[in-house]
Specification:
16% strand, two-stranded antiparallel sheet, Helix Hairpins, five-stranded mixed sheet, 2 domains, alpha+beta, 6 helices
Length: 261
């Protein structure tokens, strides 16, 4: 009888904890949705004014003014990226993210993503690409897949503050397509891997304390990959740097049938 009562008390505690966790998740989702929408308009307005200053619409700037506008532009772009990530996270949680899938060669998408990203990486980071020799057919939303790749590449640059090589590799077997993004940066410990893919999940230590970010990039990358039936994972090899792997189902390609004679 005592054992039964103890089990009931534990069951009540468990349900109360589950209810609190559900409320916390709803509150987090509401915050993301509200914050992203409320910030979107003022950030766009700031970007517009910064652009006008850059283009000289308010007169010629002196050297200090030009430097200040450059800093403002960089910070505004970062803030705009954060707002977009928050908005995307809120949409993912509400299930309001439509998939506009089409048949694509993953090699082409990765090549284009790297071309765009090389300009953002800067002179301190070299970006190399190694690709499968044959077509890597997948069915995917090109815009969403580009966002996944951008998040993985941005993470590689961000967490290798001293520069170094970033390697991107596209491979495929009979079932899966894989994109590996490898950097020579700070690296991660095996017990930290789970935190990386949580919403607002960041590993904060002496090496990473000065690195900005809200901890949404890898979370979004994994969630968007899973919408495609794929995943994003981390490989925790010994030595410096980190490797993140995007996997996607390989689309079956029908071979043309030969004519009968």
């Amino acid at each position: 009888d005592r054992l039964l009562k103890a089990e009931r008390r534990e069951a009540v505690k468990f349900h109360e904890l589950a209810d609190r966790m559900a409320i916390l998740e709803r509150t987090k989702s509401q915050f993301l949705n509200l914050a992203s929408h409320e910030l979107r308009t003022p950030v766009s307005l700031i970007r517009g004014y910064v652009s006008l200053f850059k283009e000289g619409d308010f007169g010629v700037l002196n050297e200090n003014g030009t430097r200040a506008v450059s800093v403002l532009n960089d910070q505004t772009l970062q803030l705009d990226g954060l707002v977009n990530q928050m908005l995307q996270a809120a949409r993912l949680q509400s299930g309001a993210v439509p998939l506009r899938q089409e048949d694509v060669d993953l090699r082409d998408l990765v090549s284009r993503a790297l071309e765009r990203f090389r300009e953002l990486a800067g002179a301190d980071h070299s970006v190399a690409l190694s690709m499968h020799s044959k077509t890597v057919p997948v069915r995917a939303d090109p815009e969403m897949l580009s966002a996944i790749l951008h998040n993985l590449l941005d993470n590689a640059v961000k967490y290798s503050p001293n520069g170094g090589a970033i390697e991107c590799e596209v491979r495929a077997d009979r079932v899966l397509a894989r994109v590996k993004v490898r950097d020579q940066g700070i690296g991660i410990e095996p017990d930290q891997e789970g935190m990386l893919f949580q919403q607002f999940g960041r590993v904060v230590n002496t090496d990473t304390a000065a690195i900005g970010g809200a901890g949404l990039g890898l979370y979004l990358a994994r969630e968007m990959a899973r919408l495609h039936g794929g995943d994003v994972s981390a490989e925790t090899d010994a030595g410096p740097g980190s490797t993140f792997v995007l996997t996607l189902p390989l689309r079956a390609v029908e071979r043309p049938r030969g004519r009968r004679t």
